Every structure is written in structure tokens, then in C-alpha cells.
């Protein structure tokens, strides 16, 4: 039986691993983190992603745990400009974005992967891949021990700084946009602007900057603003004060409380020069 190694236990790696297991392929996922991050990180599942996840025939809770968001409302100077629907109302599968925190999705996918016979090794960092006549000998460090294991195929699902891509000498073009964004998952305790921030997405444009409100789950809202900040390493109270001040400056009298997660993010565009190689040096 063919054996496949997937490096990276994010949504892509776990989805691929589950599908391979369902097709009868023996599959191992290696993840360098010791434990899963609790931060929500990505959160929007578009129609095609939802369709692919349902092919897994696994109970990952999209219908019961995700918040269905059917439209984004766009404002200028607090005046409503348009309602942008995410799909045709006649197509129930494609008319919503499912707001589903990545941390929750990864947990559900890990359960699906393991229940289909997959194996996850955490705290496992690949550092060398040797090509052999029939496959690849993978060298990795796992819980302070150096180990080696043979696989027929190795798949890199390990993100922007992919070690698999580096070891395979695959170039990656990358460009960064100039804007930074402050992203916060928090409770909106009060808001003077009369909007349903737990049902629809809202984007506010003004001369002072950009604000987006989007449901992240049934209690929390994701707030995104453009910012000159380069990091969010200050105390929670300092970040909260900054966020409330910036929202007020942009014409939104919003009181934010209980910040679950806050981070500064930049936006990048990356594209690998190729997606497969037969030999890893």
C-alpha cells in the first residue's frame, strides 16, 4: 500500500489526508506545533470550500456550528451604499459565506482524519528529505528525538514558509501590499450605528480609514481596520483602547469588550513556480 506524508495539519492538510484515507491510502500528517492554536485566524468558508468539505462525508458541524452570512453591506460616511449578496437566493448551497473559525474547523477535521485511520504526529519538524529509487526517506525531529521514515509521496501543506517547498527547491514569487490591518475577535457591547452585526457583514469607508464588522460566531464579531501599527504585542487593555479610539475616529461609536484575539496582519500574494517535482535533493 502506498504511504503518503502530509506536512502541515491545517485545513488543507487535514482535508487532503481525510480524502486519501477514504480512498484507502495510508496517510500520516506531521505538524511542528505541539498543540493547536486557539486563535480563530481564518474564518470564511466560501461555497466551493463548503462543497469540498461535504465530500468528506464527515460530521464537521458546518450546518450547526457555522454562522451563515448572506450579504455584505457597504457604507460611505455611515450612509448605506449597497447590499452585496454572496450568491443567488435560488441556490441554497452557494448563497452564503459560512463563518467558521479556523481553530474549530481544524479540530473537527482532525477528528475526521483520525476516525478514517489517519495518524498525526505533533511536535514533528521535517528537516531533510532524501530521494530514493522508490520514494523518499524523510528525516524529522519529534519530541527531541531524530527519526527517519520512508514514504512513497511527500506533500507540503505547511504554509507560506513551507519547509517542503524549500527542500524541493521550488521557488515562490511573493508580493506584499502596503496596508496593514488590525484584526480583532471581540464582543461588541454597544454600537450607536443601527446595524445587525451578528447576521450580516458590514464595511464602512471614510476619510479616516476602513472598518469591517463580520460575525465570527454567535457571540463574537471580527473587527478589521487598516492601521499603521506593525505589531500587536502590547497589553490587551492597550490594544483595546487603541481599537475603540480608532473606531470612534472613523465615525463609529462602538464599545468593544472581551477581546478573544487580536493581531496585526499584512496581505501578501504568493505563487509557487511549480506544484510537483519527482526528485527532492
Automatic annotation (TrEMBL):
Protein's UniProt keywords contain Transferase: no
Gene3D superfamilies: 3.30.70.2450, FAD/NAD(P)-binding domain
Cofactor(s) listed: FAD
Domain of life: Bacteria
InterPro entries cross-referenced by the UniProt entry: FAD-bd, FAD/NAD-bd_sf, RIFMO-like
NADP in keyword set: no
Keywords, ordered alphabetically: FAD, Flavoprotein, Monooxygenase, Oxidoreductase
Gene Ontology MF terms in the entry: monooxygenase activity
Pfam family, one: FAD_binding_3
Domain FAD-binding: 3-277
PANTHER family (UniProt xref): BINDING MONOOXYGENASE, PUTATIVE (JCVI)-RELATED, TRK SYSTEM POTASSIUM UPTAKE PROTEIN
Protein name: FAD-dependent monooxygenase
Amino acid at each position: 500500500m502506498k504511504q503518503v506524508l502530509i506536512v502541515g495539519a491545517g485545513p488543507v492538510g487535514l482535508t487532503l489526508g481525510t480524502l486519501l484515507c477514504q480512498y484507502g491510502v495510508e496517510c500520516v500528517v506531521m505538524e511542528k506545533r505541539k498543540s493547536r492554536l486557539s486563535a480563530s485566524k481564518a474564518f470564511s468558508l466560501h461555497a466551493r470550500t463548503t462543497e469540498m468539505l461535504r465530500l468528506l462525508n464527515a460530521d464537521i458541524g458546518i450546518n450547526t456550528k457555522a454562522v451563515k452570512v448572506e450579504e455584505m453591506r457597504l457604507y460611505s460616511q455611515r450612509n448605506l451604499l449597497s447590499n452585496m449578496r454572496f450568491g443567488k437566493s435560488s441556490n441554497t448551497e452557494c448563497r452564503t459565506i459560512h463563518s467558521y473559525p479556523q481553530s474549530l474547523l481544524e479540530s473537527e477535521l482532525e477528528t475526521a482524519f483520525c476516525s478514517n485511520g489517519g495518524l498525526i504526529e505533533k511536535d514533528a519538524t521535517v528537516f531533510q528529505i532524501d530521494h530514493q529509487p522508490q520514494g523518499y526517506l524523510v528525516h524529522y525531529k519529534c519530541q527531541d528525538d531524530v527519526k527517519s521514515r520512508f514514504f512513497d509521496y511527500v506533500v507540503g501543506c505547511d504554509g507560506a514558509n513551507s519547509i517542503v517547498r524549500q527542500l524541493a527547491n521550488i521557488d515562490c514569487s511573493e508580493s506584499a501590499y502596503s496596508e496593514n490591518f488590525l484584526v480583532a475577535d471581540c464582543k461588541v457591547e454597544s454600537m450607536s450605528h443601527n446595524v445587525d452585526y451578528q447576521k450580516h457583514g458590514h464595511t464602512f469607508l471614510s476619510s479616516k480609514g476602513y472598518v469591517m464588522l463580520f460575525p465570527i460566531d454567535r457571540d463574537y464579531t471580527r473587527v478589521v481596520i487598516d492601521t499603521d501599527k506593525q505589531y500587536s504585542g502590547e497589553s490587551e487593555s492597550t490594544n483595546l483602547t487603541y481599537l475603540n479610539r480608532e473606531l470612534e475616529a472613523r465615525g463609529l461609536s462602538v464599545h468593544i469588550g472581551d477581546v478573544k484575539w487580536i493581531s496585526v496582519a499584512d496581505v501578501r500574494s504568493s505563487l509557487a513556480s511549480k506544484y510537483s517535482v519527482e526528485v527532492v535533493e
